[in-house]
Design a protein that fits this description.
heterodimer, A: about 120 residues, alpha/beta, 5 strands, B: about 300 residues, 5-stranded mixed beta sheet, 12 helices
């Protein structure tokens, strides 16, 4: 079955979504990510959605939920690289992901996580 | 009533073409040159071109029908002339008079030539009259269409002009908004801002609403949408340029701006933006006073809150 790979970098987990997100894939990712956070004892998660061109309300909510779940497991989550069109769509759908931290690209997101971890 | 006698008309008018032209120009020149919009040479050129096209079309068929294909060139010429006049700022009446003013000289010629044939005179006068009505109406229609095009183009230009995104500093963008914020404009503003955030990698953007005359719930909602979209891209937003009346309106309307940093002036917002990106402005040669001037700047920025 198709899966989105989760990379480990020390205490951080890196998820790069590079395929078209469909509902089942999103649910699998949620399962995988939560179990990996627990297994690796990760304290930070970086989700890179720069290749995501299209979102619907379900995927938008999944992104928000995944970040919230990671927070519950005490891992900070940063969503990075959102396309302008995706941002506009999410806002129009009323999904402002208010509990999620965001950054423009992976580099800035990483700085946020490592800097935030030190604080 | 049928419109016939095209060839006969063509024959009569071809003989008098120069006279016609001169008479017509005298009439028209009074209108056009008074406004200073068209030179006499250009006018003469337009007229002689129109008359030759008209005569060619008349001569082609005895049955005068403006909708037929042999009138194609006349239509094209009128459309061109009318569009040009619309852009030059002629009024609709002046544009239609281009065509209608030829009517009188033509009817005068007809009367001189057909003094012995009253029946033919009546028929031909009718033909000329209805033909020129059609020509005139067509001209006016094209004129209107051109004017509407001008208006649409101006609207688009205004939309583009009114939403500039400027870079104030490395990583700091400013978006000075001028005029009311409706849904269409919010969309353009949002797209421009987000695009610029991607291009410059900006971390902070300042939305300045000094030029927004009124803020109602809808405008506030649009502003918050823009802020939310920028935040999703990883850029913080500061709203600045909030005038006292607008602050009062916002509170009276119950709009919640507590999640957004707001400042009274663009300068105050810029100071905050510099601080957040870890930069500060020092007065040259006064480095010992750096902490003091920094404190003064802070003081200024905190005053309007």
């Amino acid at each position: 079955m198709e899966r989105i790979p989760i990379l480990t970098m020390g205490k951080l987990l890196l998820v790069t979504i590079q395929v078209d997100m469909h509902d089942r894939l999103a649910l699998t990712l949620q399962d995988d990510l939560t179990s990996r956070i627990v297994k690796d004892g990760a304290n930070g998660v970086l989700i890179d959605i720069s290749s995501l061109d299209v979102v619907d309300s379900f995927i938008g909510r999944m992104i928000g939920n995944t970040a919230a779940m990671a927070s519950v497991l005490d891992a900070q989550t940063v969503v990075v690289g959102m396309q302008p069109s995706v941002a506009i769509t999410l806002v129009e759908l009323g999904l402002t992901l208010s509990g999620v931290r965001t950054a423009l690209n992976v580099e800035k997101g990483m700085a946020l996580l490592t800097g935030g971890g030190a604080r | 009533m049928e419109m016939v006698g095209g060839t006969r008309l063509a024959q009569i008018f071809t003989d008098n073409q120069t006279d016609l032209l001169a008479e017509w120009i005298t009439q028209q020149h009074a209108v056009a040159s008074r406004r200073g919009l068209v030179g006499e040479a250009e006018l003469r050129n337009q007229f002689s071109q129109f008359i030759s096209l008209l005569l060619a079309a008349l001569a082609a068929s005895d049955n005068v029908d403006f909708k037929k294909s042999n009138w194609q060139e006349v239509r094209a010429f009128l459309a061109d002339m009318s569009g040009q006049r619309a852009r030059q700022g002629f009024s609709p009446v002046e544009t239609a008079m281009f065509v209608f003013s030829l009517k009188q000289p033509l009817v005068v010629r007809l009367r001189q030539h057909l003094v012995t044939e009253p029946a033919v005179l009546a028929d031909l006068t009718w033909t000329v009259s209805s033909l020129f009505d059609e020509l005139g109406l067509y001209t006016t229609e094209v004129f209107q269409a051109s004017r509407e095009q001008v208006i649409v183009r101006q609207q688009q230009e205004l939309l583009e002009l009114s939403t500039p995104v400027v870079q104030l500093w490395d990583g700091i963008l400013a978006l000075p908004l001028i005029g009311t914020l409706d849904s269409a404009r919010t969309q353009v503003v949002m797209e421009n801002l987000l695009q610029k955030i991607v291009e410059t990698g900006a971390a902070i953007s300042i939305i300045d609403i000094t030029g927004v005359p009124t803020v109602d719930t809808l405008v506030a909602q649009h502003l918050l949408k823009t802020v939310a979209a920028a935040r999703l891209m990883g850029a913080d937003c500061i709203i600045s340029g909030i005038r006292p009346q607008i602050a009062q309106t916002i509170v009276h309307l119950g709009v919640n701006l507590s999640n957004v940093t707001t400042k009274a002036t663009l300068a105050a917002a810029f100071v905050v933006a510099l601080q957040r990106t870890g930069k500060s402005v020092l007065v040259a040669g006064a480095q010992d006073n750096a902490s003091r001037s920094g404190a003064a700047g802070m003081h200024d920025s905190s005053l309007p809150e």
